[in-house]
């Protein structure tokens, strides 16, 4: 009985040690494999309803447009985004692409607004007053 109990304790101790080693080494490998990269979540909406979402890996010192173009086809004119993923703005109906970062309205254009790791960028094609 004592031998069986001792064997079980040794077995579980070995499992915990091996599990601890494998987790730390794999997370270290993940962080060192792309040291100059960040992950930004992009979501596309139309009239407030989400239709696409992607996590985009992009360079550390990049802007909103970098990840957007990496994830979807994008058209712009005079510094304004006019089409994303085949969905176009409509000037006559006053529907435009606007975006937020982490829930706050952006203060810069997509070509100049920097992004940080784990930012959440939401583009919404909706009527603007």
Which SSEs are present, and which pair or pack?
Blueprint: H1 2-33, E1 37-46, E2 49-59, H2 64-71, E3 74-77, E4 80-84, E5 87-88, E6 95-101, E7 104-105, E8 120-127
Parallel strand pairs: 1-8
Antiparallel strand pairs: 1-2, 3-4, 4-5, 6-7, 6-8
What is the gist of this entry?
Residues 62-126 form the Transcobalamin-like C-terminal domain. The protein has 129 residues and is an alpha+beta fold.
Q: How would you characterize this protein structure?
A:
Keywords: Signal. It comes from Lacticaseibacillus zeae subsp. silagei. It holds the Pfam family DUF4430. This is DUF4430 domain-containing protein. The chain is α+β, with helices and mostly antiparallel strands. The chain has 2 helices and 8 strands; from the N terminus they run αββαββββββ. The protein has helices at about 1-35, 65-70, and strands at about 35-45, 50-60, 75, 80-85, 85-90, 95-100, 105, 120-125. The strands form 2 sheets. The protein has a 5-stranded mixed beta sheet, with helices on one face. A 3-stranded antiparallel beta sheet has the order 3-4-5, with no helix packed on it. Strand 1 (about 35-45) and strand 2 (about 50-60) form a beta hairpin. It is globular, with a radius of gyration of 23 Å. The termini are far apart. Mean pLDDT is about 85; it is low at about 20-30.
């Amino acid at each position: 009985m004592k031998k069986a109990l001792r064997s079980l304790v040794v077995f579980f101790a070995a499992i915990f040690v091996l599990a601890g080693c494998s987790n730390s080494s794999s997370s270290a490998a993940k962080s060192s494999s792309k040291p100059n990269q960040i992950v930004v979540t992009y979501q596309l909406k139309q009239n407030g309803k989400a239709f696409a979402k992607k996590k985009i890996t992009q360079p550390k010192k990049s802007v909103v447009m970098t990840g957007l173009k990496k994830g979807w086809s994008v058209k712009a004119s005079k510094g304004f985004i006019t089409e994303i993923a085949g969905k176009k703005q409509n000037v006559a109906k006053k529907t435009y692409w606007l975006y937020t970062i982490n829930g706050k309205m952006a203060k810069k254009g997509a070509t100049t607004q920097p992004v940080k790791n784990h930012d959440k960028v939401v583009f919404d094609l909706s009527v603007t007053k």
